[in-house]
Specification:
By secondary structure, the protein is an alpha+beta fold. Among the domains are: about 1-135, TIM Barrel; about 275-410, Jelly Rolls, CATH 2.60.120. About 15% of the residues lie in helices and about 35% in strands. The protein is built from four helices and 25 strands. It has helices spanning about 1-15, 40-50, 110-125, 145-160; strands at about 20-25, 55, 75, 90-95, 125-130, 165-170, 180-185, 190-195, 205-210, 215-220, 230-235, 235-240, 250-260, 275-280, 285-290, 305-310, 310-320, 325-335, 345, 350-355, 360-365, 370-375, 375-385, 390-395, 405-410. Helix 1 (about 1-15) packs parallel to helix 2. It is globular.
């Protein structure tokens, strides 16, 4: 079959129809789990390279990148979005709903906002998104798909500059919780950062953490007049005054312009949209000893957490923009079989102590026997920040014990 059917048909496609721009393979499992061998796949790929040297080949050929790095772009799994910045070209194959083809029973339609968020996420990590549609048998496009494509097209007409030709900026994916950042540098080295704001309810100000340089100006991308927005910049924090009404119902884009590519700093926890800092196991700068972060379970009803069983130190760095008093809260779970141990939370010369108490379980789903650990948030005290600048917060236990740590909330 391979030699008498596959290879001859590939040769026909590559020799009878002029220049072929791309062959997009959809073998989503490795060859070790199929009846196709590595040698056969290498033969196929080499045939393409020989007959059409400029033809692009994606990574879903059944070969791992370790076995054969000679592919032109990486294709992730179905509806898998990017999680980190990559310098190698990559894409996500995605659907508007659940099904790839037409289904009269389809109910799982993604919203226009969700589809735009997915696109922006990938572009902010140097990726692309291929959006599949499932037409009816007569070629008609279902209304739900046509509506979303029209709305996405309207958004791109106003904000396409932040997508087409844009790339990732150097801050981590979720460093600022209000949205994503894409970037574009021009031949004269002038640079624009595009702030894709998902939640306009954070107004009247947008706090952008991590960028060291001060922007030259700020404005709404979809505003044809480019009316300037007022902003303040200090150290690594840019605070932008937002218009009262969101420029777009899905995602609004703010432009920051710089004379050159702006440097950034990301070894600290950014202030979030609730005007505080959520310090947890995934964003700590120091962990002694190293910790194992336990992922969310039961659809997120059991949150991401760390089980503290031995003397432990966790440290975070935050930036405070002005003198203030911060309320400190600790979220944790302590079950009946756990052994609570004293916790100290310190910053500078101030130290707060707290001993977790038993929290037990709670009902996760009333109509079934679904009992889950009960997490509680308890106020521990307050810290007094005497001046603006960077501060290090330390969480420490000095005894062996057992309880689940979720986060420390530093509320300003």
């Amino acid at each position: 079959y391979w030699q008498n059917k596959v290879i001859p048909q590939i040769k026909e496609l590559l020799t009878n129809y002029g220049d072929i721009a791309m062959l997009w393979f959809d073998m989503w499992i490795p060859h070790t789990q199929s009846i196709v061998s590595k040698e056969q796949l290498m033969q196929l790929k080499n045939t393409i390279r020989q007959l059409q040297p400029n033809c692009l080949i994606n990574s879903r050929l059944g070969l791992s990148l370790q076995e054969d790095p000679d592919i032109d772009f990486k294709t992730l799994n179905d509806n898998q979005l990017g999680a980190k910045k990559e310098d190698f070209p990559w894409q996500s194959p995605a659907t508007v709903a659940h099904s790839w083809g037409f289904s009269a029973y389809e109910k799982q339609w993604k919203s226009t906002t969700k589809l735009l968020n997915n696109l922006i996420n990938n572009v902010s990590l140097n990726g692309n998104m291929v959006l599949n549609i499932g037409p009816r048998a007569n070629g008609d496009i279902p209304y739900e798909i046509a509506q979303r494509l029209q709305q996405m097209g309207d958004w791109l007409k106003a904000n396409g500059e932040a997508i087409y030709g844009a790339s990732a900026y150097d801050l981590p994916r979720s460093f600022n919780d209000w949205g994503k950042i894409t970037c574009k540098t021009f031949p004269n080295r002038k640079t624009r950062l595009y702030l894709h704001v998902y939640n306009w309810n954070i107004r009247p100000v947008l706090k952008v953490s991590g960028i060291i340089e001060q922007p030259q100006r700020a404005y709404v991308l979809s505003d044809a007049e480019q009316k300037l927005l007022q902003f303040q910049h200090q150290d690594i924090l840019t605070t932008i005054q937002l218009p009262e009404d969101a420029p777009n119902p899905y995602v609004s884009v703010i432009v920051l312009e710089y004379d050159s590519y702006p440097k950034c700093k990301s070894d600290f926890v950014a202030i979030n949209s609730s005007n505080g800092y959520a310090l947890n196991g995934s964003n700590c700068q120091t962990a002694q000893p190293k910790v194992q972060l336990k992922k969310k379970q039961k659809y997120g009803s059991i949150p991401e957490h760390i089980t503290v069983e031995q003397p432990q130190i966790l440290e975070w760095q935050i930036y405070v923009e002005k003198p203030c008093v911060a309320n400190i809260n600790l979220s944790y779970h302590c079950g009946a079989s756990d052994k609570p141990i004293p916790v100290s939370i310190s910053c500078g010369k101030e130290t707060l102590t707290f001993t977790p108490k038993l929290t037990g379980q709670t009902v996760g789903e009333p109509n079934s026997n679904w009992h889950i650990p009960k997490y509680v948030s308890k106020r521990v005290g307050e810290f007094h920040f005497q001046q603006k600048g960077f501060y290090t917060l330390r969480f420490q236990t000095k005894q062996k014990g057992n309880f689940d740590f979720q986060w420390i909330w530093v509320g300003l």
